[in-house]
Amino acid sequence: MRQKPGTPKPSAEKVVKDIRRRTRKQHSAEEKIRIVLEGLRGEESIAELCRREGIATSLYYSWSKEFLEAGKKRLAGDAARQASSPEVKVLRAEASALKEALAEATLENRLLKKSMIGDGGDHE
């Protein structure tokens, strides 16, 4: 990294942080899953696992949270897929028919009320 003339020199601490940031290991999705599953097995402490893998415990916990949330979303997707089963299709058709019958009955009721009012019947 080149320095522009007239700008102050960055501190050694900042230079080290920049180097660490640029040389940080990128973990593949498979590696993250393997590490999270090892942690979930509980055969060793999370701290020991993270030390062995060279990651911060906070990073492990964020991966773990993402992993569990993704699983939850996937399972919710399976439930949505099950909602298109033949039994559900029959129930949806039945509900639709009932809604239609209710709409017709409501309309008939309104028409009867209007005809009673028009004939000089009792007002409700």
TrEMBL record:
Keywords assigned: Coiled coil
GO terms (BP aspect): DNA transposition
The keyword Coiled coil appears for this protein: yes
UniProt GO molecular function: sequence-specific DNA binding; transposase activity
Coiled-coil segments: 88-115
Region described as Disordered: spans on this chain: 1-26
InterPro entries linked to this entry: Transposase_8, Transposase_8_domain, Trp_repressor/repl_initiator, WH-like_DNA-bd_sf
Keyword field contains Coiled coil: yes
Protein name: Transposase IS3/IS911
Organism: Salipiger bermudensis (strain DSM 26914 / JCM 13377 / KCTC 12554 / HTCC2601)
